Amino acid sequence: MSTATDASSQKKISFFATSDTECPVCKAGHRKEELFSGGGRLVAGKLTPELRRTYLENKKFGVIYPLAYVMQVCPVCLYAAYPKDFNRLNIDEIQAIKGSTDHRRKLMTTVFTKVDFKENRNLVHGAASMILAVDCYHLRLPNIAPTPKKAVSSIRAAWLFDDLFQLANYRPYDKVRDFYYMEAVRNYMKTLDLMQSGKEPLEQESYVLGPDLDHNWGFDGIIYLNAYLTKKYYTQLAEGREEHYKILDYAKRYLSKLYGMGRSSKSKPSIIIDMSKELYDEINALLTELAPKT
């Protein structure tokens, strides 16, 4: 299967910015690579239960991974962030991220052996960019809402590592995938709490909630994915039937608000209502099994 990763095909699907971006951490310059839009390059497939849009192989361009081009990454110090956040750093954040450069380099060599962000991007760069972003957002302040960005970056990392595992299952990409699924669910849980407390400005950062690129499900996506991932990993998130029941019931209560809205609209297509109703029923069945015996 063609993966559109060699230089000749990559030039047809992407382009580099005409001017340098200076890294606010190490001051090195680089030019971000962007995916061309249009031209029939992306052939949309189905929407998965995780709200991921799949793409079919394009006979002319091969398999394209749009998520590989999302993150701004400095190829020198490996600082990574969504483009709108790249220069939104104060001095404390710069020092913290600069001080963790060696950690990020070790992370890349441990997971991939070698990855060079001066090259044309491919699936490996996409997966690497997401875990670098998660690492860097751990060091960001609440004013840019780092928690939902860690959630979205984590689930995107899990998707891309699953793709890598399907292509190269001789490497333990499945273990990395599972780690980032757990990172995703923990950060989706925290984001759900932040929707109530207002401790991070989620509304002004909602552009990044995704979780994929073709449709931004926004806060509906947070509610749905929190429930979906809680159901998937509830035995790993808590110990004992009582705790299992508690976290599933919490997820179900939020989910009921989503599917209970009833009617579809432009901002809330029927597909997410239908998926939420089906998920609600599945969680309800689990809760019935876990309920204390009387």
Mean pLDDT: 90
> How big is the Rg?
20 Å
Number of strands: 8
**What topology, given as strand order, has the largest sheet?**
1-4
The topology string of helices and strands comes to: HEEEEEEEEHHHHHHHH
User: Total domains, how many?
Assistant: 2
**Subunit arrangement of the protein:** single chain
Low-confidence region ranges: 1-11
Question: Level of helix content?
Answer: 40-55%
Shape: globular
Main beta sheet: strand number and arrangement?
2 strands, antiparallel
What structural category do the secondary elements indicate?
mainly alpha
Residues in β-strands, percent: 5-15%
Number of helices: 9
Distance between the termini: 56 Å
Report on this structure:
The protein is mainly α and 294 residues long. It folds into two domains: 7-216, no CATH class; 240-294. Helices cover 51% and strands 8% of the residues. The chain contains nine helices and eight strands. It has helices at residues 7-13, 91-99, 101-112, 123-137, 146-167, 173-197, 218-237, 241-259, 270-290; strands at residues 14-16, 21-22, 29-30, 33-35, 43-47, 53-56, 72-73, 80-81. The chain has a two-stranded antiparallel sheet with strand order 1-4. Helix 5 packs antiparallel against helix 6 and helix 7 runs antiparallel to helix 8. The longest helix has 25 residues, at 173-197. It starts with 6 loop residues before the first helix and ends with a helix.
